[in-house]
Design goal:
By secondary structure, this protein is of the alpha+beta class. Bound molecules: alpha-D-galactopyranose.
Length: 752
């Protein structure tokens, strides 16, 4: 990772040369000579090569004397600069293409407008520093007082490189950031395929895969407040054709940001594809004040030679061990959430009854969802009360205290739902502070959920204090609250802030999220241990911009077990199991045409994430209760392996083989264990069911299989109790009985 050489002490006279570029179209040398550049040829420019390394991968860059920073290579740790040069394999293309430096064929990753109207940047490398795992490449414009620090951060044990830029305005007047990507990668052109997660509310995270063709492919999100419902801010790029699950070279990239973004892949008449990722600059040409620095969100990148599975495992490990998921290696409790069982219809008696039920089945936590608050405007439905975070005493006469006491008496924990960034027009908060909502000056308000929901202006420090205060107040008054569900159910539909000055309105989309992050940081500083779920109408905020402050996210408002097999599959491309809240649903399920699936199937699907339950337990049959109790008991033995193990996706539900299968291989304290999940998702006569070949095991170890969450009233299948070598399980495989509709099996594997 250390920069390999530097010439900072080089005498001034040796440095005078004219920056030039090799034109790739006609191969002529275009010398960039202007009066200005001649006048500002850097006297002390840095030159040399830079290697950013992880345990198995490297990113190589270099700068020639006085020249621009170039990217040469990203891939396995198998190349030196000399070898790349000798083989003609160095990409030698702009590492951070800036408008004004790159020719017109290549899209810029960076463009600023200086106070005098100049739109160009021409950056030379001034300094390269390495401090532990952080390499900072400081580049300065050859004319204007703007500098850009391109940063790369690595970790000792995971193959993730984070990159971002810090743009410093050295002018005495503001500058405008017209394009400010977090990172850019060049890849050698070839049979490269792009995969990203496309979706919708209640149908999040569907992997969409296509070969890259000439031209520009853009993935973006403009919701304003959430960014993962439609197209998510993560991609995979397979360099070896259609991506494979466990083989082939695949790059994964995740933009760690919760606001609007743009990911672009540009395939031009050259040798490379160019990948760019950053905040979407449309409507956000950010005004940067004098002497201030703007740091872009981090872009996390993985290069794997183990296919998409390798990319996922690296992201999961990074999330859990490098602070990208607040929960880290901790596992989540088994909980009952009141939403789909009661919706807004909560009261003290029903809360107590639900707590009895979850405690009785062996659960550990009860979460009271929406509907508990509002005095002047009681929250009976979604059209009122957001903003009025006082207990509705008509529903809950004993207040929250009675509920936390009730939970304690039953030996479980208590959690509560809030939506701090939102307000309803029918609320006391809106009556007091109409200026706190985002609004377009002089225009009618566009109203969201319930015909009356609006988004609070998180750019305003007073609103930030208010949002912090909601959580702070609850946790100070009721320290027994162990879990908060933080929801966000509205997009930014009214573009305008009464807090931001007129000539800073374009900063809104970005400053909103910077404000939100400030609030989360304050909460985390004061309450590091409370579990906080990141929810946004389901999975709208499943992203690494917010997960450092959250313990988990709500994967989807769709809990139908069959659809969840698909949604959780896609979500697992980037997010680990201990972040994915997966709840057992009720049947018939309203969101998927009244589909009914067996309780065992529903349990088995939810057991592959952070297990919970989302229904009215009093409506459960005895069989359902017994099955849930078995599931909870077994899950307690399996959850460390599931939630912190290495994921191997074995058979994709998208491959139309009638089944889906995945497994987790235990790490650290659960090394030597694994958990296998198999789901039957189609059922036709004479349909061949594949043999299941496992992955990630020690070939020489012998594993005992034990079937878990066995269906109530049945015996474990014949495989249970048998022993096999890892080699047999991976290379030959097992035949698993799956007869009925939605049959499913869970096996615990343990090394002898
Ligand atoms: C959103 C969430 C749900 C639930 C409701 C409450 O839709 O995704 O889980 O909390 O809000 O209004």
């Amino acid at each position: 990772m250390a920069p390999q050489q530097s010439n900072q002490t080089k005498p001034l006279q040796q440095m005078h040369h004219i920056p030039h570029h090799l034109c790739r179209v006609c191969r002529c040398i275009t010398a960039a000579i202007t009066l200005a550049t001649l006048a500002t040829i850097p006297a002390m420019a840095w030159h040399g090569s830079i290697a950013i390394t992880t345990p198995n991968t490297q990113l190589l860059l270099h700068a020639d004397e006085g020249g621009d920073l170039l990217m040469d290579y990203y891939g396995p740790k198998a190349a030196t600069h000399t070898e790349l040069r000798d083989a003609g394999s160095a990409l030698a293309t702009a590492a951070l293409p800036a408008f004004g430096t790159v020719d017109m064929v290549q899209l810029p990753a960076l463009q600023v407008q200086h106070p005098d109207g100049d739109l160009n940047l021409s950056l030379y490398v001034d300094e390269v520093t390495t401090e532990r795992h952080l390499t900072t490449i400081t580049m300065r414009d050859r004319l204007q007082p703007v500098s850009v620090r391109l940063c790369y951060k690595t970790y000792p044990d995971v193959d993730v490189i984070e990159t971002w830029t810090e743009i410093e305005n050295g002018h005495k007047r503001p500058i405008t950031l017209k394009r400010y990507d977090s990172g850019h990668l060049a890849l050698r052109q070839g049979d490269v395929w792009l995969t990203h997660l496309h979706g919708n509310w209640a149908a999040e995270a569907e992997p969409t895969t296509e070969p890259l063709t000439r031209g520009l492919k853009t993935i973006r999100n403009t919701d304003g407040a959430r960014n993962a419902h439609l197209d998510a801010p993560e991609v995979m790029l397979s360099l070896d054709g259609r991506p494979q699950e466990n083989s082939g070279r695949v790059i994964g990239a995740a933009l760690c940001w919760s606001g609007n973004y743009e990911l672009r892949v540009n395939t031009i008449a050259r040798r490379e594809h160019h990948f760019y990722a950053g905040i979407d600059p449309q409507s956000t040409e950010y005004v940067l004040e004098p002497r201030r620095t703007f740091a872009t969100p981090h872009l996390a990148m993985v290069f794997s030679t183990e296919g998409m599975g390798g990319v996922s495992r690296a992201f999961h490990r990074w999330a859990r061990t490098c602070g990208q998921l607040h929960r880290g290696m901790r596992v989540g409790d088994i909980l009952l959430n009141s939403w789909e069982g009661l919706y807004f219809d909560i009261n003290e008696e029903r809360m107590m009854r639900m707590m009895d039920d979850i405690a009785g089945m062996g659960g550990e936590l009860f979460v009271m969802d929406d509907g508990w608050f509002g005095d002047k405007y009681p929250r009976q439905n979604d059209s009122t009360s957001l903003g009025d975070w006082v207990v509705d005493k008509r529903k809950l006469p004993g207040g929250i205290k009675a509920l936390t006491d009730g939970a304690r008496d039953r030996g479980i924990k208590f959690g509560i739902w809030v939506e701090p960034e939102a307000v309803n027009t029918r609320s006391e908060l809106f009556e007091r502070h109409p200026e706190w909502v985002l609004q377009a000056r002089g225009r009618d308000l566009k109203l969201g959920r319930g015909g009356s929901q609006l988004v609070l202006d998180m750019t305003n420090p007073k609103v930030q204090d208010f949002a912090f205060g909601i959580v702070d107040d609850l946790l100070t008054r009721y320290p027994e609250i162990a879990y908060i569900k933080w929801d966000a159910n509205a997009s930014i539909q009214n573009f305008g802030s009464t807090y931001l000055p007129r000539d800073r309105q374009q900063n809104l989309y970005v400053d909103y999220h910077l404000g939100l992050i400030k609030v989360m940081q304050r909460i985390r500083e004061k309450y590091p241990d409370v579990v906080i779920q990141d929810c946004a109408s389901g999975g709208g905020r499943a992203n690494y911009g917010l997960l450092p402050y959250f313990d988990e996210f709500w994967v989807s408002d769709n809990t139908d077990a069959l659809q969840r097999v698909y949604i959780q599959w896609g979500t697992s491309y980037f997010f680990p199991a201990n972040a994915m809240a997966a709840h057992i649903n009720h049947c018939p399920y309203w969101n998927t045409g009244g589909r009914t699936t067996p309780i065992k199937f529903r349990c088995d699907v939810a057991m592959s994430g952070r297990l919970g339950i989302e229904l009215q337990p009093k409506d459960m049959t005895d069989e359902e209760r017994r099955q849930c109790a078995t599931c909870f008991e077994d899950y307690k033995q399996l959850r460390h392996t599931v939630q912190t193990g290495d994921l191997y996706r074995l058979i994709s539900p998208y491959d139309r083989k009638g089944v889906a299968a995945l497994m987790y291989v235990g790490q650290a304290t659960t090394a030597g264990e694994a958990v296998l999940f198999i789901y039957k998702i189609d059922n036709y006569y004479d349909q061949p069911i594949p043999r299941f070949c496992l992955a990630g095991l020690n070939p020489d170890a012998t594993y005992t299989l034990t079937e878990k969450n066995v269906r109530t009233g049945q015996q474990p299948c014949s495989l249970s109790g048998k022993c096999f070598t890892g080699r047999f399980l991976m290379e030959v495989g097992i035949e698993v009985p799956l007869w009925e509709d939605y049959a499913s099996r869970v096996f615990h594997l343990r090394c002898k």
